[in-house]
Design a protein that fits this description.
With 311 residues, the chain is of the alpha/beta class. It contains 13 helices and eight strands. The protein has one domain: Alpha-Beta Barrel (TIM Barrel). Helices cover 40% and strands 13% of the residues. The chain has an eight-stranded parallel barrel, surrounded by five helices. Helix 8 links the parallel strand 5 and strand 6. Helix 2 packs across helix 3 and helix 11 packs antiparallel against helix 12. The structure holds zinc ion. The site of zinc ion (ZN) has 5 residues, from loops. The site of zinc ion has 5 residues, from loops.
């Protein structure tokens, strides 16, 4: 990574972030956020998911929300999560042209999440990728628990390499390695991402980290050092994983953008507007958010020297 690097941020707050919040945002409230994100040049985002509304009521208005946002930007930059064919069909019905399919590298975590083994989830790609290509839908895949599982522990690098090898035959737009439960450390991240990039140079590979144990930004840096150029992040640092004990906190978008901008790395995002969006999100949710820059302000912000209190 150098000063001229261009890092792409994939905003997941409207999906991964909001799905764990007890307050369910209306379409109008989501629109308010979307419009500020739009002004902040947040281009690429996961805006919702097509899952059963009883399971994730926060996402029940995804179709309606999409109808409102689809004309604001290149539709390929608006991605919806789909857990199965039914979800993919629902996404297609409303005209979504980019979807993300998630499964876990760990069998136990995958069973908890979607009641399938990892192998079974990969086999589903047979008909999912067929359906996607028949309808001109870009298919992305996220491999959850790529860096560790709260039930199985360490996930050997070899297992991830095998999974990736199995994915090669499908026409995938992007593959994201996710640290769903915040177990990764920077050394491990560097080693795995470096190996993947060396093995498959033309892979469009992204990373998704959680700040559960305070290593989120360090892990992002480690992945960028090995050549990753797409990073997932969530406005305000909201979100987590409902199937992993204590696993809260996606890496916060404004904290990531701030770090990169301070290092002279371009993200194309307007940080001031992004911080505004984070404040709006806190207001809509009615609680303080984990992100730090939105509270402390940018490090370039200067303060008046206080009057001496010694006299
Ligand atoms: Zn996440």
């Amino acid at each position: 990574m150098n000063k001229d690097s261009n890092i792409k941020i994939y905003e997941v707050g409207l999906r991964d972030g909001l799905q764990l919040e007890s307050k369910i945002l209306t379409v109008d409230e989501k629109m308010e956020l979307f419009l500020i994100l739009q002004k902040a040049n947040v281009d690429d985002m996961e805006f919702g998911s097509f899952v059963h509304p009883k399971l994730v009521p926060q996402m029940a208005n995804t179709a309606e929300f999409y109808r409102q946002i689809q004309n604001y930007k290149n539709q390929e930059n608006l991605t919806a999560l789909v857990p199965n064919l039914k979800g993919l069909e629902m996404a297609k019905e409303v005209g979504v042209t980019s979807v993300n399919y998630v499964f876990s590298a760990s069998d136990t975590h995958n069973q908890q999440n979607v009641r399938k083994t990892t192998k079974e989830s990969i086999e589903s790609l047979e008909y999912l990728s067929q359906f996607a290509s028949d309808h001109n839908i870009k298919l992305n895949v996220t491999i959850a628990t790529s860096f560790g599982c709260p039930f199985e522990g360490n996930i050997p690098q070899e297992r991830i390499m095998n999974i990736l090898e199995n994915l090669l035959s499908y026409n995938l737009n992007k593959i994201t390695l996710a640290d769903t439960t915040g177990m990764a450390n920077p050394k491990q991240v560097y080693q795995l991402t470096k190996e993947v990039i060396t093995e498959w140079k033309n892979f469009n590979l992204g990373c998704h980290f959680h700040n559960t144990r305070g290593m989120g930004l360090a892990n992002i840096l480690a992945s960028l050092e090995s050549g990753i150029t797409t990073i997932d992040a969530s406005l305000g640092g909201i979100g987590g994983c409902p199937f992993a004990p204590g696993a809260t906190g996606n890496v916060c978008t404004e904290d990531v953008v701030h770090m990169l901008e301070e290092m002279g790395v371009n993200t194309s995002i307007n940080l001031d507007r992004l911080i505004q969006a984070s404040h709006k999100l806190a207001e809509l949710l009615g609680h303080e958010l984990p992100g730090q820059v939105a509270k402390a302000g940018k490090s370039s912000k200067l303060y008046p020297i206080p009057k001496s209190t010694l006299i």
